[in-house]
Design brief:
Helix 4 packs parallel to helix 5 and helix 6 packs parallel to helix 7. An eight-stranded parallel beta barrel has the order 1-2-3-4-5-6-7-8, surrounded by five helices. Helix 9 links the parallel strand 6 and strand 7. The protein is of the alpha/beta class and about 260 residues long. About 45% of the residues lie in helices and about 15% in strands. It starts with a helix and ends with a helix. The protein contains twelve helices and eight strands. The model has no long low-confidence stretch (mean pLDDT about 95). It has one domain: Alpha-Beta Barrel (TIM Barrel). The structure holds 6-sulfanyluridine-5'-phosphate.
Length: about 260
Amino acid sequence: MPGRVWGERWSDSASEIARRYMEVATRKCTLVCLAADRRTMNGLFELIDSVGPYIAALKTHVDLVDDWNPEAWAEFCARANQADLLIFEDRKFADIGKISRDQMAGAYDIRSWSDLVTAHLISGPDIVDGLQAGWSDVGRNGGVLLLAQMSSRGNLLNPNYTDEVVTKGREHGGVFGFIGNGSRPDELVELRTKVGKSKMIWTPGVNLSVGDGEMGQRYGDPRAAILAGSDCIIVGSGIHRSDNPAESAKKYASVSWNALLERKL
Ligand code: S5P
């Protein structure tokens, strides 16, 4: 069934986690990853309970939760698993391989509950091996999303840098895919051409209302992002700041799913 909607992304994918994502997305008819950027554990629980059915993955910033504690976090991850969600820690690792491996442990112990993490390739390709070693240390599998583009204005990820990231990341089995700029569909089309068919592109910087966000965040149309080659829209404020997060999540789910079906035709 996922093969029918995902086409070559399914048939050419060598990543177990990418297949898991495509299966969850197909089961729930949504290509939404919620950026759960709330700063209290209660706020996070409320969010996951209301929008869980309409999203396929949950993106966290574990270090911005004011009242974080290991017990509450374990409960949060258990609820995410019950809700059939991949857990994605957007830690944006950037250090040398060995330190990145150690940073997967530490107080937050990211390796033990994350399925996906983000990394910059600025320090070189060993970071991917370091992060993969982190998961191996606890007998788990995970996937790395490399930042190939960013949605924030004035960022330094120029086209040459993007090319380097894609060239190195495309061949690495530990790379699940790339973060692309959801606010610029034309740039996404180019990114998809460079990446080819077999790896994921996930895109922040999307919102159904027009205009840009705070502090240099740029937004684009979620449907346009999927049609341009994105496999998942990462939505934060558009859901967690709305008056009715469940209704908003449902809307993003249907827009994203319909765009995927349209892309196949
Ligand atoms: O280029 C990027 C990469 C990421 S991962 N731009 C981003 O905005 N993000 C993340 O996506 C950011 O850290 C935040 O959690 C989310 C966007 O949230 P929103 O509220 O602007 O939708």
